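Run folding on both entries below.
>entry_1
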Amino acid sequence: MKSILIKNGHIIDPKNNVNTQADILIKDGKIAKIGKISERADQEIDAKGMIVTPGLIDMHVHFREPGFEGKETILTGSKSAIRGGITSVLTMPNTNPPTDNAIMVAIQQQKANKANYANIFISGCITQGQKGERLANLTEMVDQGIIALTDDGHDVFDEFILKNAYKYANDYNLPLLVHAEIPVLGKGHVNEGEVSFKLGLEGIPHSAEDIAIYKNIILAQEADAQIHIGHIATKGGVEAVKFFKEKGVKVSAEAAPHHFALTDQECLDFNTNCKMYPPLRTEEDKKAIIKGLQDGTIEVIATDHAPHKKSEKNVPFQDAPRGTIGTETCFSAINTYLVKTKALSIEEAICKMTKNPSKILKINKGGLAIGDDADVAIFDTEAEWLVKKEDFISKSCNSAFIGKSLQGKCVHTIVGGEIKMQNSKVI
């Protein structure tokens, strides 16, 4: 394995409280030295004027394999992550068939090893087939290596089953990731309000998410389990998480870039790339999410990367599937809508995609200490670019940010001491 010397970069590593100008030497896939380094290496990267961070962690992606390879595969999804400076991901289990047993976990692990790009961590279903009727075989999936439980895409609507799931998650020391959405209230297409009225479409009320968040946290509290609220989108949801945090409940939450950057106004032209679940909400909700990111109520930023075919999105709004891709635009959206607006410092923003998700998922990633795996991302925070559908490396191009000008872009990505992207080109 070749040695790599990263020179002249500004290192930002919240996990190890590092924020300084320094060089990094990588040997045998590990961080070997940090400081002013004069020795030579097999490969050198000049990071002058750029920031050098631990590889980002995205704890919420849909790579669609097996079963929906026409939308994305573990290989194409991994490459799209690498392009965004994301070196570790947690895949969701709504595959076909769902990842509710050890065999399905093993299939994804084999695909990930063959792809050899991003580090792939796998979550397992809470219930069999994600039907909410009976617990999945959790023990065999834990033995096979899952690191989280979730029925993402579905809220477990049977409270008795859900309460037992929290107990098992606590026994296995795994976080349980929640898609908080009351199914009977979440059947609409856009946020319920002015936009849904103008479009003549059935809306999804805030209560669909708010009630589910309260229900899930209360049940997790009774089991003393670790609960993580996925893709939080409402002001009420943020307030609920903050309330229970202050009571000492082990609850964490994430926000997706589209929910802190955009509102339901994006849907007024029937742009199906802006149809997602939970839906884009109001300006008030967006501001509440940003405030939650600022005060620590929301510890994590994750993409909820959800690829869909062009043919699936090129239909009437009410018929289109929900979801937007996000791995390739994530850092840029964070930098544009949070850092450049001074809502968060760059250190705070990086923390929400390195230190914090690694802590919640209990994985040894997200840092650049000597001896750590050499997962590194190098960003040009001043690079300006226009998001175009034809430029995505993902197999799908259903991005809510198409046509937006963003600032900041990943230039180099290293995984396990191997350069996977150099000068913005995935190798």
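>entry_2
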Amino acid sequence: MLRRMKMSVRARRAGGTRTPGGDAHRASARSGRLAGVAMMFGSGLSNQVGAATGALAFPVIGPAGVVAVRQWVAGAVLLAVGRPRVRSFTWRQWWPVLCLAVVFATMNLSLYTAIDRIGLGLAVTLEFLGPLAVALAAARRAVDLGCALIAGAAVVVLARPQPTTDYPGIALGLLAAVCWASYILLNRTVGSRIPGAQGSAAAAGLSALLYIPVGVTVLVHHPPTAGALGYAAVAGILSSAVPFLADLLALRRIPARFFGVFMSVNPVLAALVGLVVLDQTLQAVEWLAIAAIVTANTVSVLTTGRGPSTARLRGVGRARDGNYHGGRDRD
């Protein structure tokens, strides 16, 4: 009996025997990764479809009206999920939450106004420079310098002077990028000082409150239709609630580095959704610029010695009004 046990151990060490339990574990891990990829793709697609759906209400209530409704919906959802205990917050916890609320409010308004002026694909691509800049700023390698130069050249291509160039729209897209970068840094601080999603939920709730006077003013001067309100509400759900839950579940199944690489599909998805839903076409050179920015991010993440943390990523999104707690809400 002892001899047979020793032979069995030697065989397993040599790789000659596979245990049923090991096969089951590998199959389960493979299934989990596939489910994680499906969730990430669904999150990105939901985010961009939500932004495009919100854009359908621009002719009636404008970007500010859409953002106001979206912030209200997103705030309600995230408050229900995070359940922040605001009475127990100290000033050390409150100040980054207040800053995050202002960033949420500015990020979505600048992005949606940019979408209205230059289209979904270009606006999201410019906004995507925010998390890319954060990732590159944290590194000191030649490859990161190369990635930064590629991304910078792509932005120059997107903003190249032409009679039809919408410089305010480009500036608003870049402002959204600055806000997304600030969101990532602030969310890291909030996450280290307040447990769970309480901090981001509180910030989303405050951002929703900030938009009450804005939303009421816009909706009074531009009476909404039921369809416009519906489009804006759907944007809040598809671009905030769905990505938040999908990203949360996906990060339990796939490595953070792969999550960072997969984020790169968002500008591409935005361009495709803009084409299908909003009939917004891009020129070949603009597709090349989008591909360059996506490639710069992918190379930067894949060549990093250690996988980027969730806090450095997302805030991913996605998010934008807080779906990146690990955002996307950024759209």
